[in-house]
Design goal:
- This protein is 44% helix and 10% strand.
- The chain is an alpha/beta fold.
- Helix 4 links the parallel strand 2 and strand 3.
- Helix 1 (11-19) runs antiparallel to helix 11 (264-295) and helix 2 (24-35) packs parallel to helix 11.
- The chain is globular.
- The chain binds pyridoxal-5'-phosphate.
- Pyridoxal-5'-phosphate is lined by residues 45-47, 70-71, 73-74, 116, 143, 145-146, 167, 169, 180.
């Protein structure tokens, strides 16, 4: 069985977790260097970083504009910071929030906007600069959890705003087991955020470090090929939901330890991962190219764009009949992902929150039609995955074109 994701974790990370020789300070310094920014500030989760950043910026009871098609922990963090998320639909071209619609959503209550490089596709920084010129008081927070150091025409996305957030859990491009980072070039924001973090977060305990190291060992074991076959079976029976389900569609919540600081165990693993960053990104770009070549002219499937500067946290074609195709692929020994499988304003927790329901047809279509192909595999395996996908689509009767996305079709 080929898992949908396999973090690039080896013996070095396990040794780093056990010896725990690195520190959070060192990890912050090396992280800042990698992304080319003045400051990096570590948190137990990316969502904690976003929440405390909004608080440190003094934003309260304000509207925060974010994509409808993003990770649901983002609006959770907005709500926990005492603000209101305002959801904006995606553009068909690259999965990212439509910045024309985002600009139209700005009101006198808007405090910040969170452009997000979904799947590693860089935010259109030219369009974003126009918006910033017209609305200089609105804080711009780049969500780089999918993109890491993606670039828009040679310009790094993370630097195009007041701050950026990164997620470092085990499903991300690089990982510190759990963890998140906020980066900024602004000394004032960095100083405020550090002070605020040190007040708000409890110190990490030895027990937390030990549990994190154990989690890493379990995750690496679970993703080893023979073990993964069993894990996959258990997953299908729902036996692992307690460990793998990261949200409840009806609730806005945070993990129990979201206010306990990052441990040195995690920082030590993160330090090893930073050294692997360049080769991980090179590999992902190469495999995205292999899939593009193999799938470009397949009927019934829309391949995602191939964009210079994208870092491909996911390679995400869209197609109809997703559940049947995923089941057919699973029978062929290939697990597909379907990140992001929800349109946030349609989730129960947020339907209740919003007085006026928002309509996000593009995000909704993506949430029902996107699949993710594994990017950790070797090129020859990627060719086989693509071939298996074509056959599985026939099996599943998914030979029609993906559902046209109405608003976009009508306006272009
Ligand atoms: C993973 C992720 C985050 C942060 O996630 P945490 O689990 O809180 O570290 C933020 N935004 C997006 C788009 C993500 O995918």
């Amino acid at each position: 069985m080929i898992p949908r994701l396999r973090p690039s974790l080896g013996a070095e990370e396990l040794v780093a977790a056990i010896l725990s020789r690195g520190t959070v300070d060192e990890f912050e310094g090396s992280f800042a260097q990698l992304v080319g920014q003045k400051h990096a500030i570590a948190f137990p989760y990316g969502r904690t970083g976003l929440m405390l950043l909004l608080e440190a910026l003094g934003l309260n009871d304000r509207e925060i504009i974010c994509p409808a098609f993003t990770c649901v922990v983002v609006p959770h963090a907005i709500v926990y910071s005492g603000n209101q998320p305002v959801f904006v639909d995606s553009r068909e071209a690259d999965f990212n929030m439509d910045l024309d619609l985002a600009e139209a959503a700005i009101s006198e209550h808007t405090g910040a906007i969170i452009p997000t490089s979904i799947y590693g596709y860089p935010v259109d920084l030219d369009r974003l600069s126009d918006l910033r010129r017209r609305h200089p008081d609105i804080i711009v927070i780049q969500d780089c959890a999918h993109s890491f150091a993606a670039e828009w025409q040679g310009r790094p996305v993370q630097r195009a705003g007041d701050a950026a957030i990164f997620g470092l859990n085990i499903s991300k491009i690089i990982t510190s087991i759990f963890g998140g980072m906020v980066t900024t070039d602004r000394d004032d924001i960095a100083a405020r955020l550090r002070r605020h973090r040190d007040q708000r977060l409890g110190g990490p305990t030895r027990a937390k470090g030990f549990l994190r190291a154990t989690y890493l060992l379990a995750a690496v074991t679970a993703l080893c090929p023979p073990v993964f076959t069993l894990v996959d079976r258990a997953q299908k029976l729902g036996l692992l939901d307690r460990f793998t389900k990261y949200y409840d569609p009806g609730r806005i919540n945070m993990p129990r330890d979201f206010l306990t600081a990052m441990t040195d165990v995690e920082a030590s693993v993160g330090l090893v991962q930073l050294d692997r960053y360049a080769s991980i990104i090179d590999h992902r770009r190469r495999i995205a190219g292999v899939y593009d070549e193999a799938l470009r002219d397949s009927p019934g499937l829309r391949p995602p764009p191939l964009i210079d500067g994208a870092t491909y946290s996911h390679y995400s074609p869209i197609l109809q009949n997703r559940a049947a195709v995923m089941a057919a692929m699973s029978r062929r020994g290939i697990e597909l992902g379907h990140v992001i499988e929800y349109c946030i304003p349609d989730m129960q927790a947020y339907r209740n929150l919003n007085s006026s329901p928002c309509s996000c047809p593009v995000a909704q279509a993506f949430s029902e039609q996107v699949i993710n192909l594994p990017l950790h595999v070797a090129p020859d395996v990627a060719v086989r995955v693509a071939e298996a996908l074509k056959v599985s689509m026939e099996d599943a009767g998914a030979t029609d074109e993906p559902t046209p996305i109405e608003r976009a079709a009508g306006s272009s």
